[in-house]
Specification:
Length: about 525
């Protein structure tokens, strides 16, 4: 501390007062201060600009939800409320629709099929973002009318409504909303983002002039433009086929999520909004889409989980290839990504199933289904009573499973009890009722046709059959009395004499000429003295 003294001199005086703290913005150099300011303020500025941009453009739509200001206030204070509407989970069907081409190569949508099928599963606390991919060649039941076909044909039979119903029936989960992406609009969206960084896994070369698809990529990390992203995500002409194609599509999705987090995207919002409006169709309201964007804006991409439905490659009698889905493997995948609450491992849950229906084997199918989903079945036994009408599910501190078990055992009464340690018993008790018992066998109606009744068999041995009587000797006819003095003898007709057939004399054999005799060899001259 200093005090001025007479004569202009300054005298330093020591005091016990603590030194004053210098404000942080004065201690930090200007460069470091700029960095800290940017890290804190810039993301907030980007979020404000995005929200303001969308707010101004979507005011007419937001007025339908009760007012623009009220909607914006809900986004900030309760993100997810408008989108989920009280649901504990939201499943969104995302399909990419491919075009057909006429003889001139012009695209048209009549009879088009889905090229890409995915289901996104979200929760209102943004704890999960799960993606399940479905191969387009998967053979499933489309409907009772169309029978079993490839799942991508559902769109050509009945549009998005039939696709939605088919996917929901196959997966066994509700589909709350849908998003249709036109395949030919994806390149425009990628180009509006300025391209997407992708690590291309292999060299790819393929040309389909009829389908307007040309793929020529080299292996390595690179930024792909719109047409290149389409080619990379649709390529399946290798040993992996549709499976590799699905894996690359999920790779592109992750890259798009990372790209959308780039702050520079705010400068492209007007172009992106225009492309999205022209190439995406959905039943989600504008307020719901923005609510989901606000809810998941800070989502950690490392928590994103993905999987695919798998099966065997088959060929039918007409030479058409398809995929026959696996059973238990797919059930576990569907259970993990689309049914189970986030951050819950069902393999740690012990389940006991008690049969109170009075019918033996009533819960056999349910036990197999729970095991396929990963539950730990520790006990299957008869209950103390056999007159239970409605199945009861008792959850000991596992309230998060309420919604899931309601879909696994529809119609069951679900009770929530206080948690109990494993030493005292399983965490889940299922008391089967008569509603889970198999129906009794159907009695066939009796017909009016006579039935064959065999003759009763005798209890004693039958007597032997009598021996046949000998045939009587022929009786000669008695002489006929004609009134004459002497009887007239009846002469039997003479027996026919067989006609003699003259035999032709056998032909004489041809004379055989004697074989020529060999000429005698000349006798040798007698040997003698030379003359």
């Amino acid at each position: 501390m200093s005090d001025p003294a007479p004569g202009g001199q300054t005298i330093m005086v020591q005091t016990d007062a603590p030194p004053r703290k210098v404000p942080w913005h004065r201690r930090v150099p200007s460069a470091r201060r700029l960095i800290v300011f940017s890290l804190i303020v810039f993301p907030l500025a980007v979020a404000t600009l995005v929200a303001g941009f969308l707010y101004i453009r979507m005011i007419p739509e937001l007025e339908k939800t009760g007012g623009a200001w009220k909607t914006f206030q809900t986004w900030v204070e309760e993100p997810g409320k408008l989108a989920f509407e009280g649901k504990e989970r939201m499943n969104i069907l995302v399909v990419g629709v491919d075009y057909n081409h006429d003889e001139r190569g012009m695209p048209y949508t009549k009879g088009a099929r889905t090229d890409t099928i995915m289901v996104l599963s979200l929760d209102p606390k943004a704890q999960m973002l799960n993606v399940l991919s479905i191969p387009r060649d998967l053979r499933v039941l489309i409907s009772e009318e169309h029978g079993y076909e490839k799942i991508n044909s559902a769109y050509s039979f009945g549009g998005i409504d039939q696709t939605r119903e088919t996917v929901s029936q196959f997966l066994g989960v509700p589909i709350h909303h849908f998003v249709i992406v036109k395949v030919y609009g994806v390149p425009k969206m990628v180009d509006a983002l300025g391209g997407v960084p992708i690590d291309v896994e292999k060299d790819m070369d393929y040309d389909d002039n009829w389908g307007k698809l040309h793929i020529h990529l080299k292996k390595g990390h690179q930024v792909l433009d719109g047409p290149e992203v389409i080619g990379y995500s649709r390529f399946r002409h290798d040993e992996e086929g549709d499976r590799g194609r699905i894996r690359r599509q999920q790779q592109v999705i992750r890259a798009l999520v990372d790209r959308l987090k780039d702050p520079a995207i705010v400068l492209k919002l007007n172009q992106i909004a225009k492309v999205v409006k022209e190439n995406i169709e959905t039943d989600l309201a504008i307020a719901q889409m923005l609510d989901l964007a606000m809810l998941y804006k800070d989502f950690d991409r490392s928590k994103m989980r993905s999987g695919k439905v798998d099966g065997d490659d088959c060929v039918d009698g007409n030479g058409i290839s398809y995929i026959e889905p696996y059973g238990p493997e797919n059930e576990r995948m569907i259970m993990s990504l689309l049914k189970m609450p986030p951050n819950l491992n069902v393999s740690d849950l012990q389940v006991e199933v008690l049969n109170g229906s009075g019918t033996q084997g009533a819960g056999r199918d349910l036990v197999e289904s729970l095991r396929a989903q990963g539950f730990q079945i520790v006990r299957v036994a008869r209950a103390d009573r056999s007159d239970v009408e409605i199945t009861q599910v008792i959850l000991y501190g596992q309230g998060r499973l309420r919604t899931h078990l309601a879909t696994v055992i529809p119609g069951a009464d679900i009770l929530i009890e206080n948690p109990r340690p494993k030493e005292m018993g399983p965490q889940i008790t299922i008391l089967l009722g008569k509603d889970m018992a198999p129906p009794p066998p159907v009695a066939l109606p009796q017909n009016d046709y006579p039935t064959y009744v065999p003759d009763p068999q005798p209890d004693f041995e039958p007597e032997p059959a009598p021996e046949p009587e000998p045939e009587p000797e022929p009786v000669m006819p008695e002489p006929v009395d004609t009134g004459a003095s002497e009887p007239v003898e009846v002469t039997p007709p003479p027996e026919p004499v067989p006609e003699e057939i003259p035999l032709e004399p056998a032909p004489e054999p041809a004379p055989v000429e004697p074989a020529p005799q060999p000429e005698p060899a000349p006798e040798p001259a007698p040997e003698g003295p030379p003359g």
